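Thread: Newbie trying to understand structure tokens

Hi all, I'm a second-year student working on a class project, and my supervisor (Dr. K.) asked me to get a predicted structure for one chain before our next meeting. I've only ever worked with sequences, so writing a 3D structure as a token string is new to me. If someone could post the tokens and maybe explain what I'm looking at, I'd be very grateful. Here's the chain:
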Amino acid sequence: MTPSRALALVLIFSAASAQAQFCPFGETERRIVTCKEGSTMEECRALASSAGCNVVRDLPSVHAVVIEISAARVHIAEATLASAPDVERVDTDRKVLWLHNIPSREFVLPDMTDLTQKLREIKTPAAAASDPEMPWGIKRVGAADAWTRTQGEGVKVAVIDTGIDPTHPDLAGQVAGGFSALSGSKSSAWKDDQGHGTHVAGTIAAKRDGKGVVGVAPKARLYAVKVLDKDGNGNYSDVIAGIEWAASHGIKVANMSLGADEGSEPLHRAVKAALKAGMSIVAAAGNSGGTVGFPGSYVETIAIGASDINDRVAEFSSRGSEVDFIAPGVDILSDKMGGGTVSLSGTSMATPHMTGLAALAIGAGASSPSAIRLALSRAAKPLSGLTPDMQGSGLVLAGNLLKSGTRLEDGGSRMASLSR
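---
Reply by user tm_fold:
Sure, no problem. This is what the structure looks like when written as tokens:
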């Protein structure tokens, strides 16, 4: 450290120390303080804590620290941090509702005539076509066509969501561990208290035992990464911490059936860091019927839209050039927290189909995020009548994963360009 830089840090710490002696009662706000690469995490933590009243957590993958500040002193603290030579940026760590329910009109049981016809058209083994354990979405992606070669055995999959119910009969023994990023909770407190994450987990890897439902990759190893509370809320830093935990624990693919209307530079950096670490992120496109949400909008993720039993795009499914693929997302039967099953709709339900397919791609030989993306692209079939903005490359069929060249490293046009 140069003498001038050391003096600057001393002056900044001294100026802010009077405001950092205690965390006062009353309203507080969070800020994500990102430091420049030349500084250490210890220096970043010391600098950030000097302007706030509490350090919430470190975010090493984005070289940032989350601090809590008295609401009455936010502007002073931000000004102090802005003048610090080692601070790159300061972002508001907003608490966001990441789960967006589908209007009840979307929860319509499919016409049985259409369903019967669709099941005839799906080229899966005869046993699968008559298997009551398989919801229509699992059949539609032809999951069983890959099972003679791979069921995703040993592939580590993170469900970054509300947690998972590990006691559900379909998921007992499927969950290898987890982590909770929520402030004030133990890192081991990752069990689901909302239900969303359990439903997602069932579509990915519910076990094949002739009961309940079966997932796309029934031998994958699930990890519950709890970043949302029982109401579906979470701070940006909670989601970032969940991504960091998964990427640092050898997870190959992460499911993010969640989305925010606004992006965050620290969130984007965390997604980039995870990709660099070798973790693919499969993200929901969103349920607004409009533009794709975040993190699905980021080029480094694999964004998924939703289709119905008739291969039409769901009315609620967000669309745009950011959409990479489409998957079943209307009236999806999967596991219910506490036991049993429930039918839900949303791109949240489409996304785990693709995550399961990604796990099968890994089981078939795809060894890197770019190889996974390429394998999925080659296995996709465009759905008739849908534009690329609705479906990206189309619907991935599991059997095609066994035919695709998974060793090639070109990640496809959206990934290769890294721009829109």
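A couple of things are worth pointing out once you decode it. Residues 3-93 form a domain with the Alpha-Beta Plaits fold (CATH 3.30.70). The CA atoms of residues 312 and 385 lie 8 Å apart. Feel free to ask follow-ups in this thread.
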